[in-house]
């Protein structure tokens, strides 16, 4: 596989899924010739290069060095693919929501684990009188042994 070549399995899957959506019922096992897959792959690669170069130009015009999603949306409009902008924005927003939900879930889980760990240390950090090996009460001997965790202090 060349460095710039798209993964064939991904291209095949995408093409077959789309053709199946467009096809009639009962045509689930639609085949695509190897040359057709190569043509799809090469077309997608060229489109990505063209879109990337246009987005990069937009970024540089804004005197920035990092291409962002807005640059890509503007590039799509500039190369006359405006009809893609709406669905891509929706897809990006869904991705961001999913990512934020996942981050929130992880943060809540970390907080829950941290809180339950603190509760355990509080419950296990018995502060009080202890007995020494001989069975005598340390407090009676004038010595106080305190088993407290740093969280209790």
Question: What does this protein structure show overall?
Answer:
- Helices cover 61% and strands 0% of the residues.
- The chain is built from 4 helices and no strands.
- It has helices at 8-22, 34-61, 69-78, 85-124.
- The chain is extended and about 70 Å long.
- Mean pLDDT is 81; it is low at 137-153.
Percent of residues in helices comes to 55-70%
Our measurement of the CA-to-CA distance between the termini, rounded to an integer number of angstroms, reads 62 Å
> Low-confidence runs (pLDDT<50, min 5 residues)?
137-153
- Principal-axes geometry comes out as extended
SS field, number of helical segments? 4
List keywords for this structure.
153 residues, mainly alpha, 4 helices, 61% helix, 0% strand, disordered C terminus
How are the SSEs ordered, and which strands pair?
Blueprint: H1 8-22, H2 34-61, H3 69-78, H4 85-124
Quick gist of this model?
The protein has 4 helices and no strands. The chain has 153 residues and is mainly alpha-helical.
